[in-house]
Specification:
By secondary structure, the chain is of the alpha/beta class. It has two domains: 5-120, Response regulator (Rossmann fold), CATH 3.40.50.2300; 146-197, Arc Repressor Mutant, subunit A (Orthogonal Bundle). 43% of the residues lie in helices and 14% in strands. The protein has helices at 14-25, 42-49, 64-73, 88-96, 109-120, 146-156, 161-168, 172-186, 191-194, and strands spanning 5-10, 30-37, 53-57, 78-83, 101-104. It has a five-stranded parallel sheet with strand order 2-1-3-4-5, with helices on both faces. Helix 1 (14-25) links the parallel strand 1 and strand 2 (30-37). It starts with a strand and ends in an 11-residue tail after the last helix.
Length: 205
Amino acid sequence: MRSCVPVVAGEFEDLVAVGLRQLISEDPSVRLVASGVPLDQLGGAFDEHRPAVALLNFGSLPSAASVYKLHESHPETRIVVLANRPSTPEATQMLSFGAAACISKETQARDIINAIHLASRGMNVLPRTAKPGERPGLPGPDLLTPREADVLEQLQDGRTNAQIANDLSIGVETVRTHARNIYRKLGISSRRDLASLGRPNAAIG
């Protein structure tokens, strides 16, 4: 059974804050231990609650250096930044400064929960790049599912499809399907390309 993930949330707009509280309350494997925490008090909240994941509002950050300082002082807490449809360069910058993910506030609820779980396990997530002509508000990050993350970790360990199937108690064809989905979402075509992503601390995108 998946262990409960403690989460601290920074300051968000009222509607977003209410939505996040509701979303997290509906998932028994995630627990909100503090919310509405001002940026200058996040360090103290991390020390007090020792969260696995922190949700930060991109709009409340004076600079990317804020993320870097929090990451350096509390590396055990994974930071997920929520922004208003972040561009790929913005998301990449957040990851380069230590965030585990930078995703749109407009993404689907299940993807935010998936991002929390993936971040708590050391995975980094980049939002899918918008296609030319795509209307704002459509769609959010193309995230790996928790099961795809399990398969990805084993692929990066050099495990064969048969070994992965045995370890995860799934069929070999199911492993192949997960692998194809992983390659598509990461924009790669083979296991060889996984090497360029590094271990789970490397950005996915």
